[in-house]
Amino acid sequence: MKSQLKCVSVPGTVIVGAGPSGLATAACLKEKGVPYLILERENCLASLWKLKAYDCLTVHLPRKFCELPHMTLPPDFPAFPTKLQFISYLDAYAKHFSIEPVFGEEVQQAEYDSTMGFWRVQTLRYRFFCRWLIVATGENAEPILPEIPGISDFQGGYLHSSLYKNGANFKGEKTLVVGCGNSGMEISLDLCNNGAQPFMVVRNELHILPKEMLGRSTFGLSMWLLKWLPLRIVDRFLILSSRLILGDTRQFGLRRPQIGPLELKKTTGKTPVLDVGTLAKIRTGQIKVVPGIHRLTARGAEFVNGGVAEFDSVILATGYRSNVPSWLKEEEFFNKHDGSPKTPFPNCWKGKNGLYSVGFSKQGLQDASIDAQRVAQDIARQWKSETKHLHFDYHMERIVSHPRLHAHISSISSLRSRLQVNQVG
Asked: What is the mean pLDDT of residues 290-296?
């Protein structure tokens, strides 16, 4: 199979992933005059938003923190754009910068060849060779499917939140939502609004913050306060304000961690929950909070406190994880355990031998955009140290001279026509 792969030399950079991080990086590279090729495993860009996001989703941060480099969100968008609005922005962004990913090409393996001085990026059909490799698959590439005892015995409906669209099909059903992050909270609310009876599993402590404080978004206010005050002081302010606005959530089974919300996010990447109306439904009993699951049964669940209940369906709002360790053969930059860079933000964007990452900061789209600009600037500095003509001929000569690859090298015209390489300048 490997002998049948077509070898393609890419002038410039290969970007893996056509989500917001990949698009931002491509736009920044284009602005710098650096050619690139984006490989995307799905059949569309922003596949997490288009294929795996529920209908009622809105961005969790104010619009100004969700803009990609060199293009603002439309002025008529609300403070928190909806899923469809943000998708339309991403589509317009790709069109504006003439970004054309190669769809349906899932990277099976990427490895640096120290002898040749290139990255070898392999899909099912091709083996690409490039000087620089940018990993932009992000922190949410694969759904997390926990192993729950008794799962094979449960006879009701069972799905991950990546397959959930809306609560219309759950009307009248008792639904167990496993997970109490932003997705779990919002799906529980959506189920309730569509006539279902949601029960939300809460195992651990969590921070719930109001979406707005003092007439401003909680996130925006936090970022402003951090300019003047230490993080621990801002955390105390957020907790106090949340208690005043939302009340004491302990009575509903929602306990707060000892560590503050911003420090928790900084140290663990765990995002505080922004309340969009779920807490009000919990207060009225329309959404019920239950403890951790001991095991699933044929008709429901047994809980760790000894309680038992029947359910028609189970929805896993258990989040996503990086898939980088499954395909990137590299030991120093990425953590094999969770697939994130070993060095925390703001220094998580650059590895060795031309390896970069964008979208792994655990800080949201704004910091992904910052990383995209840093990466583009760093690559552009190297790219412009040589002329494009000499740069490309030099690499082609090195690759063609390799006896195992000589028979499979694609011509420049074939490369452009078949793969739509984005050559700028």
From this structure: 95
